[in-house]
């Protein structure tokens, strides 16, 4: 069952299932966050926001309110 990326655990890999939202949230698609893409939570900022992810070989920082719109499942490892 997909859950929001903001609830992901550090060091784990996930498979993007869906991006919900509109407007600025759709820029995530331009950044390569497409369904069936593997994304890994790398680390949290000292105060917990933003969160750094590794996707398609590059690092991307997202705010938790942006990560809330990305639904993921645990990736097969």
What does this protein look like?
The chain has 77 residues and is mainly beta. The chain has one domain: Ferrous iron transport protein A (FeoA) (SH3 type barrels). The chain is built from 2 helices and 6 strands; from the N terminus they run ββαβββαβ. It has a 6-stranded antiparallel beta sheet. It is globular, with a radius of gyration of 11 Å. The model has no long low-confidence stretch (mean pLDDT 90).
Number of helices: 2
Cα shape: globular
Q: Helix proportion of residues, in percent? A: 10-25%
CATH-assigned fold name: SH3 type barrels
Assembly of the depicted chains: single chain
CATH superfamily: Ferrous iron transport protein A (FeoA)
Task: Tell me the number of strands.
Answer: 6
Beta percentage is: 35-45%
Number of domains: 1
**Second CATH tier, the architecture:** Roll
Which structural class is indicated by helix and strand composition? mainly beta
Low-confidence stretches: none
Distance between the termini: 17 Å
Nearest-integer average pLDDT: 90
**Order of helices and strands, N to C?**
EEHEEEHE
Features:
globular; six-stranded antiparallel beta sheet; mainly beta; 77 residues; SH3 type barrels
What's this, in brief?
The protein has about 80 residues and is mostly beta strands.
């Amino acid at each position: 069952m997909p859950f929001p990326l903001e609830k992901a655990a550090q060091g784990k890999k996930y498979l993007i299932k869906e991006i919900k939202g509109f407007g600025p949230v759709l820029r995530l698609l331009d950044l390569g966050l497409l369904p069936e893409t593997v994304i890994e939570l790398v680390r949290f900022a000292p105060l917990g926001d933003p969160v750094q992810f590794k996707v398609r070989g590059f690092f991307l920082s997202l705010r938790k309110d942006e990560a809330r719109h990305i639904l993921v499942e645990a990736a097969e490892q």
